[in-house]
Amino acid sequence: TKGAWVVKDIAGVDEKAGKVYFVANKDTPLEMQVYALDLKRPDAVTRLTEAGYFHNAVMNRTASRFIVTRSNASQPTQSYLADQNGNRLAWIEENALKPGHPYYPYLASHRAPKYGTLKAKDGTTLHWEMITPEMEPGKKYPVFVEYYGGPGTAQRVAHKWENPLTQHIVDRGYIYFQIDNRGSNFRGKAFEDQLFQKLGTVEVEDQIAGIEYLKAQPFVDADRIGGYGWSYGGFMTLKLLEKHPGVFAAGVSGAPVVKWGLYDTHYTERYLGDPNKDPKAYAAADTIADAGRISDPMLLMHGMSDDNVVLDNATALAARLQAENRPFEMMLYPGKAHSAPRDIHVWTTVLGFMDRNVKNKR
After folding, report:
1. Is 79 a catalytic residue?
2. Considering 206, 286, 296, 306, which one is annotated as catalytic?
3. pTM for the whole structure
């Protein structure tokens, strides 16, 4: 295949018919669809799944049947059996939002996302998503900005079902916003490569571009914007607070990498290179040196049994902030690993912090 799109998976191959079935975002970066390609006519790519959904698919060995999963912003994940032409043969799980469904009681307040684009400094198109509460004319609203930002590992803006937690955030009176910065997944190698040996730079610039867009909206209170990120997103919070004091009313940094020498070599050296040969890239990505620049309210969180981003990261940052006489809040989770964000106490703490420092800021 060729074109400005990404093939995510090969679903199956029909050797007799000379066809390849694959999952890709050929029509829009915001949707994964299932396609068929005739090897004799490789330019003739046929979409087999319905537009408006984000799909995944697996195929049997004879390339006669698919199991397809899909969702969109208004429909939680469904799965069905399809033939080789994409025709649905039977629902495996229709997951219809009807009485008896766990989410049905919340449908009345469900808010659909709005999608849009803006330009990065270098002209690259960036995709954003915004979910707004039911807004009153003339009223300005606080914003909860969430990000991950790491290279090649996450796409946050897509036509798929959101974690219902985002709806809870909106129900609390926030606008929810996220933008996929340069380096994020499914936009191609050139898009990802912009972070090579530049962690903490261009992805931060792109998040700032999103925040500047927000501040220009008449319904946004520019003084009440808060940022939240976990793992690489926690690192992003630190870089945003260090490089751009005042951009957030407050920031939450969960399980951040603060010194890349403390992180997995297979990931770190892929994006920063050899620390002995490329020390400048590591120094630029470090968050300890500039920790004293953090002047906005910050909540630092970490699972004490985290074997991915080890606790030494949080304690090193805390020690530096204390040495710099910088106030901050901290919450540790005994026995919790890197997946601590699934804990209800984490989100009670995050939202309480945001309410105090962002929504109720005076």
Report:
1. no
2. 306
3. 0.95
